[in-house]
Amino acid sequence: MHHHHHHLIANILHLLAGGGLGMLSAGLAGHFGWRSADRMPGESRNPQCVYCYHPYTWQEISPLFGWLLRSDTLSFLCPCGLKKNQWPQPACEVAGFLLGLIAMYFQDWSWAAVPLCLGIGLLPAITLIDLHFGIIPDGLNALLGLLGLLYVWMSGGDVWLALAVSAALLCVGLFFAVVYSKWRGREMLGLGDVKFFAAAGFWLHAQNAPWFFAGGGLIGLLFNFWWRRHSDDKQFPFAPALCLSLAICILYQAAGSP
Fold this sequence. Notes:
By secondary structure, the chain is mainly alpha-helical. Helix content is 70%, strand content 0%.
């Protein structure tokens, strides 16, 4: 009984560690990615208030602590007082925590779980930034690809196959962005999305790549329908659908891995 109890505590700690890694990744990527998308050339890369340019302290950037250890939790109090209603950042961190926790549940503890939980935590941040700015920062795409490659290598997967899948997805993305867009006479896929395809390729088993596209397309259609009814912006952000589809594929693979 005592051994079983110990096992249970270890499992709970592993799940919380997975959630913590996901939240850390989502929180930092959210802050720095947001700044990267909002930044003018030559400006500081450090996160700051979009209104008064007050630079954030490390506590303000820290996931969870940044918004939990305040008297007025859901509104970020800035010297300018304009920075209100900042629910996207906490929402991004909560989503990162949940994804990291589920990933750890399927993966079981090994060092490969670290890049898995960090990588899947980037997806809510990418979603949030594309919704607001209509772009995916190159840094986040690069980090997503790098963590995917690290995960394949650490979990004993085939690194060359991962590179091949990534190259194949990059080609598909370029086809949509260049050839198909020219044929349709409007941009069907942004270059940020193309780079996201390449990064996603490192995470996907070859047989799951078509499911990633099918899922992204289906979720994208549903989201597009909602977007047209609720937004004046004609440019539809595709990253939320791609991120959700990739998260489902990654978790499905982790659940099926021995």
